[in-house]
Design goal:
It contains 18 helices and 18 strands. The protein is of the alpha+beta class. The chain folds into two domains: 55-221, Creatine Amidinohydrolase, Chain A, domain 1 (3-Layer(aba) Sandwich), CATH 3.40.350; 225-488, Creatine Amidinohydrolase (Alpha-Beta Complex). The strands form six sheets. Strands 6-5-4-1-7-8 form a six-stranded mixed β-sheet. A hairpin with a 2-residue loop joins strand 11 (313-314) and strand 12 (317-318). Helix 14 packs antiparallel against helix 15 (361-376). The longest helix is centred in the middle third of the chain and has 23 residues, at 227-249. It is globular and about 80 Å long.
Length: 494
């Protein structure tokens, strides 16, 4: 019995094995955890964490917003409430992006207000009070005193006082700026304030007469990123880029989609982010032709392309990267044709991300390259102008989404694309994704899929900062040429 157990141990540690012992196997034999060797090597590629966004910057953001309001306005910013996953288990809480943008405050149940006292604007936070018993179970709280120390606010109160104080604020306001439907208690207070008809209102004209959603005003501010914001985004982009490379190196025939998902999301956490910015898309084979596939439970078979769309979040700021590659490390000729075409389209689109160009210029550039390429490959039988037609063009069979979107505190960040009905012109500091793709799902009943390209799904996505010097690719560290991909897929991290 002892000899049998010893034999198993020797086999497990590669002491009796006719196969080649890989460097990672050797490290495991020596007692080094695999994650420590792979993740530490990857972490060494990541630069230092950026400085936190300063109180002065939060104040500047608040002032830019408040300068657009009237002295008799009341601004109320509400985060989403905590959400129940099941029974007494909650989903991880993430405060609203507007709250993050204006204050950096992350705790649940908090409300931010701004009102004018006749002399200046007063920014107030309503926060969970200190409560030792609850803190033992749920974690430490800043409390009122903590909120007043080191945060960009003028006053703080317990949420237990919120109803009384905010009701009074509403009574003194002429207009309330709040996004309805987020906090039912706030909605009720505002509604009661508008409907109230008492002697004070009759004598003095007190009380609000209108409600306005401030989201568009805040979105316009958030659309242009400051240097401090760009530093956060550059950092999370670098982490996400390296995470994708780790998943490439971990690729092999027979891998489960969720195994590659665990590697990439594991590094997000290992590198100090708050985790994923959106649910990861990890699809092999025909799953790569499903745009928002998130089941991620299939086995990757030889000859298949895997598509991974994943990005981390850091201090609220998102990265958004998509890469596609052969799970076995070698593109077939058909896969090369489609991949290179998508890459050419992406490069053409990135080149359009310049100051003064309309926001849709990258999309139109990508569509043109894709249509021309598919005509040359014989997939599209129409002339170019016909192929590009939104309604009847054959391009929409294989490319059915936009080429990009704003990115920042939300992965699909806020900001109007067509103010006054015309495409917005790109400006210094705007950030957007560029993500063309082609999807040949042989499972689809609505198209006659070319056999040569059956079940090939390719998307290539990067995050772009618009500058006066041209497009700055924040995710440039993530490999994407055919030669670069084939050189690292399935290989140890160097």
């Amino acid at each position: 019995m002892k000899n049998w157990k010893l034999l198993l141990v020797k086999v497990a540690f590669g002491l009796i094995n006719h196969q080649k012992i890989t460097p990672n196997m050797q490290r495991l034999k020596m007692g080094w955890p695999l994650a420590n060797t792979m993740f530490e090597a990857a972490l060494a590629r990541i630069g230092d964490e950026p400085e936190a966004i300063s109180i002065a910057e939060y104040r500047s953001r608040q002032n830019r917003l408040l300068s657009q309001l009237r002295p008799d306005d009341l601004l109320i910013v509400c985060p989403n409430p905590e959400s129940t996953r099941s029974n007494d288990v909650h989903y991880p809480f993430r405060t609203s992006s507007d709250m993050l943008y204006l204050s950096g405050w992350k705790d649940p149940e908090s409300i931010m207000t701004a009102h004018h006292d006749g002399t200046s604007w007063i920014v107030t936070l309503f926060v969970q009070p200190k409560d030792t018993l609850k803190e033992i179970w749920e974690g430490r709280r800043e409390g009122v005193d903590g909120a007043l120390n080191g945060w960009a606010i003028d006053a703080a109160h317990s949420v237990e006082e919120m109803s009384t104080i905010i009701t009074e604020m509403i009574g003194d306001a002429n207009r309330v700026l709040v996004r309805s439907g987020i906090n039912s208690n706030i909605d009720s207070m505002v509604k009661d304030g508008i409907e109230k008809r008492d002697r004070a209102r009759q004598q003095f004209g007190n009380g609000p007469i209108s409600i306005e959603d401030p989201s568009a005003k805040i979105a316009e501010l958030r659309l242009r990123k400051s240097a401090a914001e760009i530093a956060q985004m550059r950092h999370v982009s670098q982490i996400s880029s390296v995470a994708h490379e780790i998943s490439m190196r971990h690729s092999a025939v027979g891998r489960k989609e969720y195994q590659l998902q665990s590697v990439i999301e594991g590094f997000f956490s290992y590198a100090g982010t708050s985790g994923w910015a959106y649910p990861s898309i990890v699809g092999c084979g025909d799953n790569a032709t499903i745009l928002h596939y998130t089941v991620n439970d299939d086995t990757c078979e030889d000859g298949e392309i895997i598509l991974i769309d994943a990005g981390a979040e850091y201090n609220g700021y998102a990265a958004d990267i998509t890469r596609s590659w052969p799970i076995n490390g070698k593109f077939t000729e058909a896969q090369k044709e489609i991949y290179q075409l998508v890459l050419d389209a992406q490069l053409a689109a990135i080149d359009e991300c310049r100051v003064g160009r309309p926001y849709n210029a990258p999309h139109e550039a990508a569509r043109r390259v894709l249509a021309e390429g598919l005509i040359e490959l014989g997939v599209i039988t129409q002339e170019l102008d016909e192929a590009l037609d939104i309604e009847e063009g054959q391009l929409r069979r294989w490319y059915m989404h936009n080429t990009g979107h704003w990115i920042g505190l939300d992965v699909h960040d806020v900001g109007i694309y067509k103010p006054n009905g015309e495409p917005r012109l790109l400006e210094e500091g705007m950030c957007l994704t560029v993500e063309p793709g082609l999807y040949f799902g042989a499972w689809r009943p609505d198209v006659d899929c070319p056999e040569r390209y059956a079940n090939i799904g390719i998307r290539i996505e990067d995050d772009i900062l618009v500058t006066f010097n041209g497009p700055d690719v924040l995710t440039k560290d993530c490999p994407k040429t055919i030669s670069d991909l084939e050189a690292i897929i399935g290989k140890d991290f160097q």
